[in-house]
Amino acid sequence: MIATQATETRHWSFHTDLEGLGWLTINTPNSPVNTLSREAIMELETLVARFEDLANTRELIGVVLLSGKDSGFIAGADISEFDAMSDFSVLPEALKRTHALFQRIENLKIPIVAGIHGFCLGGGLELALACHYRIAVNDDKTRIGFPEVKLGIFPGFGGTGRSIRQAGPVDAMGIMLTGRMLKAGAARGMNLVDKLVRHRDMLRWEGRKAVLQKRKSSRAPLSKRVMAMGPLRGYVSTKMREEASKKARPEHYPAPFALIDLFEEHGNDWQAMSRGEIDGFVPLMGNETATNLRRVFFLSEGLKKQGAKGAKFARVHVIGAGVMGGDIAAWCALRGMSVTLQDLDMARITPALERGKKLFRKRLKKKREVDAAMLRLEADPEGKGVSRADVIIEAVVENLEIKRKIFGGLEDQLKPGAILATNTSSIELERIAEGLKDPARLIGLHFFNPVAQLPLVEVIRSTFNSDAEIGKGAAFALAIGKSPVVVKSAPGFLVNRVLMPYMLGAVERVERGESKELLDAAAVAFGMPMGPIELMDTVGLDVGKSVATELGHSVPEGSKFAALVAGGKLGRKSGEGFYKWVDGKAQKGPPPERSDLAALGRELVKPLVDTTEIVVAEGVVASADLADIGVIMGTGFAPFLGGPMRARQNGKA
Ligand SMILES: NC(=O)c1ccc[n+]([C@@H]2O[C@H](COP(=O)([O-])OP(=O)(O)OC[C@H]3O[C@@H](n4cnc5c(N)ncnc54)[C@H](O)[C@@H]3O)[C@@H](O)[C@H]2O)c1
């Protein structure tokens, strides 16, 4: 057989080799990741027509589909195109065309095999599922899944039906409803992938073998498929609806509920389910939730583009091994940094090391990884790590004199270029920096409690700082997997400043006799992850009171709030605050009936939104966009509304 001439389109390259094997490679131009844009799909149509012709004339024995990018296979559809679409009425036709294309791929008479490394998500996984056989690299980087629900939609290129066909209804719906990404081994376990290889280089060899041996993926066994049959499907759907309702409300996040409806209707027939996708998909796409979630996605991706390029961080020194310092140190060690942790004596460091061990055990699977992380986290009561550290983070008690003294003693020991940072919540950065020989060095890195759970780090800029220090601070936050938002040094920065009037407003209503359960339920009905009273209990009433005072709010003597603090009833951590707490759960009575819960929630959230507007007007954050993503990440504010500024603009808050 003669090798055919190579074909190059903007996204694809294709050639056949001497064996008659076709090699198809995707490489999206000007993008770090491959995406399936309209253009990529139309080019693929032409190529598939060619495969059909070549298969008929027996000039092609099979095709191996690979990615030309290091980042991975295909990260999904090109979602920027959704925003560019002025009119969603063209969507059904576009989807039908892609469905038809994927069906033609599946109908090819010759084997077509997908070789997967890195990200294989959304539309990329749907394309892979239309191939006859899937091989994936079994390493730490491979990620397989359907993140669509996180964007307010569900798979729309036939992936709902095809994933059910491969994995069975329970597993397939599970990954579509959560948007969870699977590692290669888990995807193999679910039968979404047919074979694992160790290295990317092996994809070609195994791909060739799969074509020559005409390997075909097997479908989910009857034992799994049965869950979509007869009355069982109704039962499974009800269970799934119950689970989904625990995490989201259909009026806020309609996609998972629409997907369950689709399953309930067609789940026993994968082709009918795939066809039904189109009718369900279009209204979701037109919904404000999807528009707002895409915005949140782009804003959070935008945060990753900040920061000084090329900055490297290997060693971190943390001073203060309390609630925050201990957890910051453990987090940095978890993320691969060598960390020295300093406090007044060993007795104050040991509990932090113990907490670190718990975190490592939870997040790292293998014992040797846990051991390695423990070795990276070192007690350092004498502060020997200072002179070697690339980053120094101070998290001692909130006291200006103590902080000043610490920084004064550090300055001469620092490595040139090392970041010097404080985690202060309320002390003006300028006042701490004043005592330094070079006050421009000190920045704020404001973490949130619990450090392991909250993704935001406010990078605080004082009047002394230049872009260089701030850029490095942002780069460090990214290096430890956090999302940096740059905020001017102003009382409460962004997150505490907007949260406080919201929480205190609710506390005041409780003082006046309103039901705390009702207020909390109302905020959740509006779209907050937790009500303001439960949040105050979680933050700690002592911390809440001191931040409130710091921000100029008054906590009147004789108030219930003041009495609770005085009585050591500090909330969750002491077992009682506004609520009693058992096993980490607030003990709530049933809230009184109220028909307009969400309207009450909106009333409660108003001070938060008002304050965000003020913060933006004052220039504390550089833009309304940054305020939105910062408040979403720092407070959990209703992502489906796109953030407080966007919600106000849309008349929703
Ligand atoms: N707790 C929160 O939710 C939170 C959130 C963000 C920021 N912060 C800020 O983080 C900092 C620490 O807060 P925390 O809640 O972890 O306090 P904490 O009281 O739990 O811990 C402070 C630690 O600093 C140690 N310390 C005191 N003086 C020291 C010195 N001279 N040298 C070394 N260590 C010393 C103490 O022994 C203690 O272990 C504060 O500035 C606070 O404003 C707290």
From TrEMBL:
Q: What is its EC number?
A: 4.2.1.17
GO BP terms in the entry: fatty acid beta-oxidation
Tell me the keywords, alphabetical order: Fatty acid metabolism, Lipid degradation, Lipid metabolism, Lyase, Multifunctional enzyme, NAD, Oxidoreductase
- Report the GO molecular function annotations: enoyl-CoA hydratase activity; long-chain (3S)-3-hydroxyacyl-CoA dehydrogenase (NAD+) activity; NAD+ binding
- Per its UniProt record, what Gene3D superfamilies does this chain match? 1.10.1040.50, 2-enoyl-CoA Hydratase, Chain A, domain 1 (3.90.226.10), NAD(P)-binding Rossmann-like Domain (3.40.50.720)
- Please state every residue range assigned to the domain named 3-hydroxyacyl-CoA dehydrogenase NAD binding: 316-489
Look up the domain of life of the source: Bacteria
Q: Which stretches are annotated as coiled coil?
A: none
Q: In which pathway does it act?
A: Lipid metabolism; fatty acid beta-oxidation
Specify the 3-hydroxyacyl-CoA dehydrogenase C-terminal domain's residue ranges.
Answer: 492-581
Catalyzes what? a (3S)-3-hydroxyacyl-CoA + NAD(+) = a 3-oxoacyl-CoA + NADH + H(+)
The record's top EC class is lyase
Write out the similarity annotation: Belongs to the enoyl-CoA hydratase/isomerase family. In the central section; belongs to the 3-hydroxyacyl-CoA dehydrogenase family.
Name of the protein in its database record: enoyl-CoA hydratase
Provenance organism: Devosia limi DSM 17137
